[in-house]
Amino acid sequence: MGTKVGLWIDHREAHIMAITDKNEELGLVISKVEKQPRRDEDSRHAGPYEAMQVQADDSRQRARTGHLNTYYDSIIASIHNAESILVFGPGEAKDELVKRILGTDLGKRVEAVEAADRMTDHQIASKIREHFAEKNAARNVN
Length: 142
What we know:
By secondary structure, the chain is an alpha/beta fold. It has a single domain, classed as 2-Layer Sandwich (Nucleotidyltransferase, domain 5).
C-alpha cells in the first residue's frame, strides 16, 4: 500500500493525515489569510479623507488571493507523494484546492471531495481511516 492522504481544509488551516503500511502522520498547515476584510461600521464618519485611509477593495482581494495561492501550494507540496487523496471540509477552500491539484500530476490521485463541518483532530483522523478502510474492503471484494 502506498501513501494515502486525507485532508480537512478551510481558508485558515489544513489538517493533513498521511497513512502508510507502517504508520500514520498528522500535520497542520496554517494559512496567513485573514478573513475577508470589511470596512468598519463607523468608517463613513471618519472624515473627508476616509477613502485614502482604507485600502481599495481590489487590492485587498489581490493580496488575499496571493496568500491563498501560497497556502494551497504549500499543501500540495506536503502531499506530493500521495497515492490517493481525500479532501473534505466546509466552504469553498476544498474546491479551490482540488482545482489547483487537478492542474498538477496529483490530479489523477484525488479519490473524493466531500463537504464536512468543523472537526476535531480525532474526528478528522477517524474519517480518513474509515474512508480508506472502506476503499480497501471494496477492492478486496472485487
